[in-house]
TrEMBL record:
Keywords of the record: Repeat, Signal, WD repeat
Highest taxon in the source lineage: Bacteria
Species of origin: Roseiconus nitratireducens
Cytochrome C Planctomycete-type domain sequence ranges: 39-96
WD repeat placement: 223-264, 265-306, 307-348
Protein name from the UniProt record: Cytochrome C Planctomycete-type domain-containing protein
Stored InterPro entries: Cyt_c-like_dom_sf, Cyt_c_Planctomycete-type, WD40/YVTN_repeat-like_dom_sf, WD40_repeat_CS, WD40_repeat_dom_sf, WD40_rpt
PANTHER family named among the record's database cross-references: F-BOX AND WD REPEAT DOMAIN CONTAINING 7, WD40 REPEAT PROTEIN
Keyword Repeat part of the UniProt annotation: yes
């Protein structure tokens, strides 16, 4: 009965429009507009709910997950018509949305009854939306949404809704208007400046790129094929191709001469905002709302890489004129730069730089004609100049005060022209890099090291007694006491090289000593607690008025925070911080007043940075002291500003670091203080000493030294404790304790090693590093010796133009065990052979990874796994050179196996040059391979 009622209802509907049904119903003209109005929003190629695609005829006929939607010739059994008329659940459109009226239902029924025929050819482009026309009440200027200047500098084009104005250098003006222009999202001149390419379209309907003659505004050709509006259209440099992209997530390459589409590039999951060809036109890069940029090969449309580091929509993109870099601005307020290496095959393009530019998204940018600089515009209206030599922000231009849409450099690179939503065009002068104030002034401090002989020994008590005797001459209470010092403190004058015994006798007491210093002089200030004393000293250097002296200003260039867990004040390993992929080795990390430095990259998703020195207790920099960091605590990558340089307003903080220290930055002296002070000007300076907790009493004695700094080093060598074995070696680690700021290289040399043994000495502890790893190796035919062999080690360095040598000691008395070792490790090249125990050279360019093999000769019966370590498996490698792709198990040869490939990466910060390198098998106390040479190439 229900079926009969349903059929009766449908027949009644058809009867009421019998005259209409008698005519042929056209799919494109009559049916598709109904489907588009009520159905396509949820059932389209990109979002096919229920598996039903209704924006394509074949998809509609095919049906969805529930079966066929249309039964040609039979309206009464067509699910689409039954659901649309409310006769079958679920009713469509759902959620009480407005559905087709009786006339539209009758049209659908008639079409199905006539056989549900499809369109003849492609559907025509929909040039208008069926929406109410709302007239704007504002009668001001329309926004300028795009702007372009021709390569020859003669023409300037400005795009408004439905109109393009092209003005020439001779004051001639051409206005381009046609009914299909719509909103102009992009304007680009052809390389010969004769034609103009505009990207526009109708949102929700189609995308259109149009080519116009510049001189008369005549439409040459239009490229229509996208299913939604276009955001980008650009010529290739040889003008043979045009690339277009927009809201429909598809990139189309067109033949510029014929207007025929050549290929589609698919893979993005959001609107595509920008496109750029490489200078040789082999590569196309795209910027997308899916928070990625992609690199495509133009010849066949293959995707070569996805640049996934951005944390927001990628809004603009370019390839530098030399073809070396891809640059992109994104919604996470950052500018990113990748080195373009995937030019002929799929490769990972390494991230070179990430710069936090503004507190709002980077809307667009333009690169100067000479490639030295680029200018960014942010959503806030701020404009910043970026130097491309190091991708550092160097200047802020006058803010726009409102939202900008586009910008372009003048051909001479002296100005940028910016289009605004207000309908105005403004120009800003771009300063030359020499005038940006980012380089250190020529008058910057030149350090002076002194030899003042032996120090004078003084006591706080005698100094105070002397001041009491000579009160009128010495007392400077007015200038000697500040709000930050104990009101009863007096300034005690001392000589230029002194050691003072004193006591913080009361809680909150601050002892203040004053001495004269000249500009550039480097002073070492040491504050030690006396034996068994309870003092935890902290020292501060102030000027004559008691104001702390600024040591350095640190400009934050990247923001982050601690993830997974916090850190105590001494840990060096597993620093897990947000956005670590964009950070570089040796960059300074500021958190909670402490400055540390990144030493080793995380080795995977379940690890973090190691900070300097890479082992032991954490070093700090600029006199800051180690502190505890909580989970989620903010952290920043910072760079020191040159003296007198003005920080760029990039939305990130600037930290002023004063001359103050609580705990020794290199942690050799526990809770005692060590501070290096360089006098910024001639004058009197003060040292304040107190307890960091504000405590005091008779047990809070200290020893304060104000002395000329003596840069140097204290070398050590670990003795070899295990006997040498045939065809293997033993490690001996050499370490440097750096004194008074010396950060240069230190070379260790070995003396007294007989020719029958070999080693990788001399070894050098690199600049700023703490250790290197030496080794001594015995040949395969070695049988042992009767004499005592105890090689000596000496270390030397060039300090202030002088060679400074130190006797280190010995590596221990060498012993030999002739028994066959469990394994004999060897490093051998891939694809070629070298002598079994030959020192060959493995070259690795900075920023790249190469591979070699580690092979082992096993002792009969020894079939166990052999580990060569984890992140430290590459022994004596240069800083930034490491064994890569080792996983959780490290560099491991499996049981019964005799070799494996391993990968060696040189970070882009690695210092070019040659250095000995070896591996150590973790068996029998550590058996080393014969060393090879790793050469880091620029």
């Amino acid at each position: 009965m229900a079926v009969r009622l349903l059929l009766f209802s449908l027949l009644a509907t058809l009867s009421s429009v019998a005259g209409f049904a008698a005519d042929r119903v056209d799919y494109a003209r009559d049916v598709y507009p109904i489907l588009e109005m009520y159905c396509v929003g949820c059932h389209n190629t990109d979002d096919a709910q229920g598996g039903l695609v209704m924006d394509a005829f074949d998809g509609l006929i095919r049906g969805g997950d529930s079966g066929s939607a249309i039964t040609p010739g039979t309206p009464g059994s067509s699910r689409l018509l039954l659901m649309a008329s409310g006769k079958l659940d679920p009713v469509m459109p759902p959620d009480d949305a407005e559905g087709p009226d009786e006339q539209e239902l009758a049209t659908l029924a008639a079409w199905i009854e006539q056989g549900a025929n499809g369109p003849e050819g492609d559907l025509p482009v929909k040039r208008q939306l069926r929406t109410p026309k709302i007239k704007p009440t504002f009668e001001g200027s329309s926004p300028i949404t795009a702007i372009a200047i021709s390569p020859d500098g003669r023409w300037t084009a400005r795009g408004r809704f439905g109109e393009i104005e092209v003005s020439g250098s001779g004051q001639e003006v051409t206005t381009i208007t046609d009914t299909d222009l719509g909103k102009i999202n992009s304007l680009v001149f052809s390389p010969d400046s004769k034609q103009l390419l505009a990207a526009s379209g109708l949102t929700g309907a189609y995308g259109r790129a149009a080519i116009y003659e510049v001189g008369d505004g005549k439409l040459v050709r239009e490229l229509v094929g996208h299913r939604d509006t276009l955001y980008a259209a650009t010529f290739s440099h040889d003008r043979s191709l045009i690339a277009t992209a927009g809201y429909d997530r598809v990139i189309v390459l067109w033949d510029a001469a014929t207007g025929e589409p050549l290929r589609e590039l698919k893979g993005h999951n959001g609107a595509i905002f920008d496109l750029a060809f490489s200078p040789d036109d082999k590569i196309l890069v795209s910027a997308c709302a899916d928070e990625t940029a992609k690199v495509w090969r133009v010849a066949d449309g293959q995707r070569l890489d996805t640049l996934s580091q951005p944390e927001g929509e990628v809004l603009s993109i370019a390839v530098t004129a030399d073809g070396r870099f891809v640059v992109a601005g994104s919604g996470d307020n950052r500018l990113r730069v990748w080195r373009l290496v995937s030019v002929d095959r799929a490769r990972i393009n390494p991230l070179v730089a990430t710069r936090f530019v503004d507190e709002t998204p980077i809307v667009n940018f333009a690169i100067s004609p000479n490639g030295d600089a680029l200018v960014t515009i942010a959503q806030s209206g701020n404009l910043k100049v970026i130097r491309t030599a190091d991708w550092q922000p160097v200047a802020s231009l006058e803010p726009l005060g409102e939202s900008a849409t586009d910008l372009v450099f003048s051909p001479d690179g002296k100005t940028v022209t910016v289009s605004l939503m207000s309908g105005e065009v403004v120009r800003r002068d771009v300063p030359t890099l020499e005038n940006t104030g980012t380089t250190a002034p020529e008058s910057d401090l030149r350090t002076v090291y002194m030899d003042l002989g032996d120090p004078a020994s003084l006591t706080e008590t005698k100094l105070r007694q002397s001041m009491a005797t000579n009160l009128p001459q010495s007392l400077d209470q007015d200038a000697g006491a500040t709000t930050s010092e104990n009101a009863s403190s007096l300034v005690l004058d001392v000589e230029r090289h002194v050691v003072i015994e004193g006591v913080i006798s009361e809680p909150g007491e601050v002892d203040v000593y004053r001495w004269p210093a000249n500009r550039g002089e480097v002073w070492a200030i040491d504050a030690d607690h006396v034996d068994s004393g309870r003092l935890d000293p902290i020292v501060t250097v102030t000027d004559a008025a008691g104001v702390p002296v600024t040591r350095v200003r640190l400009q934050a260039v990247r923001d982050s925070y601690f993830t997974f867990r916090g850190k105590d004040s001494t840990q060096v390993g597993d620093f897990r911080i947000f956005n670590w992929q964009e950070m570089k080795l040796s960059e300074y990390l500021y958190a909670g007043g402490e400055v540390s430095r990144l030493w080793m990259h995380p080795r995977g998703p379940d690890s973090g940075f190691n900070v300097y020195p890479g082992e032991g207790t954490r070093w700090t920099y600029f006199g800051t002291s180690g502190t505890t960091h909580a989970l989620g605590e903010p952290a920043y990558i910072v760079r020191p500003l040159p003296r007198g340089a003005t920080p760029l307003a990039n939305g990130l903080p600037v930290f002023d670091i004063t001359y103050e220290n609580d705990d020794d930055p290199f942690r050799k002296h526990g809770k005692d203080s060590r501070l290096l002070f360089t006098a910024p000007e001639d004058g009197l300076y003060r040292v304040r000493v107190t307890d960091t907790r504000g405590e005091g009493g008779a047990e809070y004695g200290y020893r304060l030294a104000i002395r000329p700094a003596e840069p140097g080093f204290e070398p050590r060598v670990e003795k070899i404790g295990k006997p040498l074995r045939p065809a293997t070696g033993r490690e001996c680690k050499v370490t440097v304790d750096r004194v008074d700021g010396y950060q240069g290289p230190v070379t260790f040399e070995l003396e007294g090693l007989p020719d029958r043994l070999s080693s990788n000495f001399p070894v050098t502890v690199q600049e700023g590093q703490a250790y290197a790893v030496g080794m001594i190796w015995a040949g395969p035919n070695e049988t042992g010796w009767d004499d005592t062999i105890e090689p000596r080690v000496k270390a030397w360095a060039m300090i202030n133009g002088k060679r400074v040598e130190r006797n280190v000691g010995t590596v221990g008395e060498l012993a030999f065990d002739p028994a066959t070792p469990s394994v004999v490790p060897r490093i051998v090249p891939l694809g070629s052979e070298v002598g079994t125990y030959e020192n060959w050279t493995l070259q690795v360019p900075r920023g790249q990874t190469v591979s070699a093999r580690v092979a082992i000769d096993r002792k009969e019966g020894f079939n166990n796994e052999v580990s060569f370590g984890k992140e430290f498996s590459g022994r004596n490698a240069s800083q930034g050179v490491y064994v890569d792709n080792i996983g959780l198990n490290g560099l491991l040869i499996l049981a019964d196996a005799t070799e494996r490939e391993f990968f060696l990466t040189a970070d882009e910060t690695a210092v070019p040059g040659k250095r000995s390198f070896f591996l150590t098998a973790g068996v029998e106390g550590g058996l080393t391979s014969h060393p090879i040479t790793v050469e880091v190439l620029p």
